[in-house]
């Protein structure tokens, strides 16, 4: 009943070993542009306005900002193309910092990305709802927070069904935004194109005047401050490199095309909107965005047949802007779990975050991102003003670390072709992103930026504690494995299986010492009683092993070698042996299936499994270690199968986190 309900809500399970499955879940460049590029493109709804307003009365200088914005988008995009080339299995800024700068730099980058993706969801949903509520009566404003939470849960549901499913639902919104904004920007520039020479002249005149009155250094500082405060325009560019593993083959080529689509669309939209501000003489209006003011003027110039039709056209445009912000929130659900999964593989986060659901989605990470985003919305009351401050720092921390890693890489690989060009691009990107990071941190620190730094610091501290715990447990397990030498003697003749005789079946995980510990305990307690020695193992297919067909084949080969070791162990004890090996995204379900097969063949069977037991068991040890053995015992006993759990003590120091 439970499985049927889950299937009806989330869809039928997908077979990770089917070639058709990878085609079903992998994204072509166009869909990846929508799913991963929406965050970057949506920043055109607020990034250019921040930069423009930061100039104050010196708006003619914004022509420089338009050019700098477009160039910066391409500089960062080209730099992240290198990341895609160097790390085609995904991971983006986290893997770049880890591999090129060190594990702890990677931890900082990964934690910054995770916090940033949570804030991406929160701020995108809140901004989208604000845009929607600007079209209705102010008295309905009390319902905004409830709608924000509801929309976050809807996005969670769509993403639990699968990445491609969520993108297809949001596709019309994305296309609507692109089409309406391309038309408005194109018409807006052409309609007032005759003013461009005048504006260029005003820009040069303003430059000379400020240079002489304030000084050229002060002029540069004014421009750099405005440029940096518009840094939100570039958020989201890293999403493609974080999710390369989700793209169709050849992944590097698909990733580069996706990055190209993203860079062109963002540079055109963000740079074009700043130019529109100048051409249409945009000024702030209380309660309205500069985009709304500018687009209203353009739509009025076009004339759709009266004030009512013009207003309806403006509503459509702003509705698409609001909708795109919701699409951008989906980027947090795609990128955040991917970063968590990569960090979990390296033991910075609980290992459960690398597990895939039956829909091949990192379900635990997706749920965590939704819960965290809802908490942020509730704490901040969905205030975009507060969320913008929290959101403004972390992405550039990751950018800066990633580009520093690329600089280091190309300096160390000077023998490779085009290294000098790539080094120069990486240095330029590092200087740009590092400058924006410094200015943004200083400007926003007292406005609430310190909260972001504290939250990120706490996540980093949690990662250090989790990694320390896993390292201690791993060292303890390795010592235990080393203390179990192979059994003395060797029996050449293979004993024959006797299905009607007592049978011991050992359920094992990744570590060999678990089987050695359990088998020795059983042989010591019931010497000579069990005649058949079965090994049952279900290898979970997680994000680490679902990196491509070759990764799955390597996984199978490794597990088959383990099975051969276990069979040899049984022969050394003079026992008949057989193994049952399965692969699946749900370890418990797969193990139960294998146990049913074993019971059908060996009716007099008892199942055994080792379980790590900590001297001081806490909620933390239960969180960090899957309770798969206990779940197995409950499932098997419910079906009338006997299972015995054999405790494997972990020293106290290994249980501390």
Percent of residues in beta strands: 5-15%
Give the count of helical stretches: 25
Give the % helix.
Answer: 55-70%
Low-confidence stretches: none
H/E order of the elements? HHHHHHHHHHHHHHHHHHHEHEHEHEHHEH
What best-fitting shape do the alpha-carbon axes yield?
elongated
The total beta strand count reads: 5
Arithmetic mean pLDDT: 80
Rg calc: 29 Å
CATH-scheme architecture of the largest domain = Up-down Bundle
Give the CA-CA distance, first to last residue: 39 Å
Classified in CATH, the superfamily of the largest domain is: Amino acid/polyamine transporter I
CATH top level class name of the largest domain: Mainly Alpha
Instruction: Estimate nothing, just give the exact number of structural domains.
Output: 2
Instruction: Find the structural class using helix and strand composition.
Output: alpha/beta
The major β-sheet equals:
5 strands, parallel
Strand order of the largest sheet: 3-2-1-4-5
CATH topology tier name of the largest domain: Amino acid/polyamine transporter I
Please describe what this structure looks like.
- Helix content is 68%, strand content 6%.
- The longest helix has 64 residues, at 419-482.
- Strands 3-2-1-4-5 form a five-stranded parallel beta sheet, sandwiched between helices.
- The two termini are 39 Å apart.
- It folds into two domains: 2-446, Amino acid/polyamine transporter I (Up-down Bundle); 503-655, HUPs (Rossmann fold).
- It is of the alpha/beta class and 657 residues long.
């Amino acid at each position: 009943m439970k499985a049927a309900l889950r299937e009806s809500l989330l869809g039928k399970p997908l077979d990770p070993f089917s070639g058709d499955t990878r085609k079903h879940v992998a994204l072509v460049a166009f869909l990846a542009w929508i799913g991963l590029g929406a965050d970057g493109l949506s920043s055109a709804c607020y990034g250019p306005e921040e930069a423009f307003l930061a100039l104050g009365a010196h708006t003619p200088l914004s022509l420089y900002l338009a050019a700098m914005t477009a160039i910066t988008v391409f500089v960062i995009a080209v730099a992240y193309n290198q990341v895609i080339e160097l790390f085609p299995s995904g991971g983006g800024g986290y893997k770049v910092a880890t591999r090129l700068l060190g594990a702890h730099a990677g931890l900082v980058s990964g934690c910054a990305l995770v916090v940033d993706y949570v804030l991406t969801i929160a701020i995108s949903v809140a901004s989208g709802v604000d845009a929607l509520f600007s079209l209705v009566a102010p008295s309905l404003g009390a319902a905004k927070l409830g709608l924000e939470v509801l929309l976050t849960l809807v996005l969670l549901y769509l993403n639990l069904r699968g990445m491609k499913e969520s993108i297809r639902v949001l596709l019309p919104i994305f296309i609507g935004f692109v089409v309406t904004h391309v038309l408005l920007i194109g018409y807006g520039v052409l309609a007032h194109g005759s003013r461009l020479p005048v504006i260029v002249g005003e820009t040069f005149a303003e430059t000379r005047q400020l240079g002489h009155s304030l000084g050229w250094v002060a002029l540069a500082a004014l421009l750099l401050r405005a440029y940096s405060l518009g840094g939100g325009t570039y958020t989201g560019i890293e999403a493609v490199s974080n999710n390369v593993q989700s793209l169709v083959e050849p992944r590097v080529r698909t990733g580069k095309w996706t990055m190209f689509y993203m860079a062109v669309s963002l540079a055109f939209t963000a740079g074009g909107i700043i130019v529109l501000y100048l051409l249409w003489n945009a000024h702030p209006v209380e309660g309205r965005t500069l985009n709304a003011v500018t687009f209203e003027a353009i739509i009025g110039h076009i004339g759709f047949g009266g004030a009512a039709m013009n207003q309806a056209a403006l509503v459509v445009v702003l509705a698409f802007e609001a909708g795109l912000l919701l699409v951008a929130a989906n980027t947090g659900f795609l990128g955040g779990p991917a970063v968590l999964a990569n960090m979990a593989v390296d033991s910075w986060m609980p290992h459960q975050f690398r597990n895939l659901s039956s829909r091949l989605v990192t379900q635990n990470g997706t749920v965590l991102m939704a819960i965290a985003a809802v908490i942020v919305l509730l704490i901040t009351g969905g205030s975009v003003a507060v969320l913008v401050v929290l959101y403004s720092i972390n992405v550039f921390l990751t950018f800066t670390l990633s580009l520093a890693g690329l600089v280091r890489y190309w300096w160390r690989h000077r023998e490779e072709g085009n290294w000098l060009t790539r080094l120069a691009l990486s240095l330029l990107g590092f200087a740009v992103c590092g400058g924006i990071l410094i200015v943004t941190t200083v400007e926003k620190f007292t406005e609430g930026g310190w909260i972001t730094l504290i939250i990120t610091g706490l996540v980093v501290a949690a990662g250090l504690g989790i990694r320390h715990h896993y390292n201690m447990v791993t060292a303890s397990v390795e010592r235990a494995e080393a203390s179990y030498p192979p059994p003395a003697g060797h029996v050449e003749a293979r004993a024959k299986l006797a299905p009607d005789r007592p049978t011991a079946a050992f359920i094992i995980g990744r570590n060999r010492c678990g089987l050695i510990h359990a088998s020795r305990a059983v042989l010591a307690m019931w010497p000579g009683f069990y005649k058949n020695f079965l090994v049952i193992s279900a290898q979970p297919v997680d994000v680490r092993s679902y990196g491509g067909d070759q990764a799955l084949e390597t996984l199978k080969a490794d597990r088959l070698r383990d099975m051969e070791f276990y069979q040899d162990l049984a022969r050394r004890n003079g026992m008949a042996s057989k193994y049952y090996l399965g692969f699946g995204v749900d370890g418990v379900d797969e193990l139960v299936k294998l146990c049913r097969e074993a019971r059908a063949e060996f009716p007099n069977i008892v199942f055994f499994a080792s379980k790590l037991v900590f001297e001081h068991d806490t909620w933390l040890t239960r969180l960090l270690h899957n309770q798969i053995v206990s779940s197995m015992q409950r499932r098997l006993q419910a079906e009338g199968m006997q299972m015995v759990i054999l405790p494997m003590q972990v020293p106290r120091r290994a249980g501390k986190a």
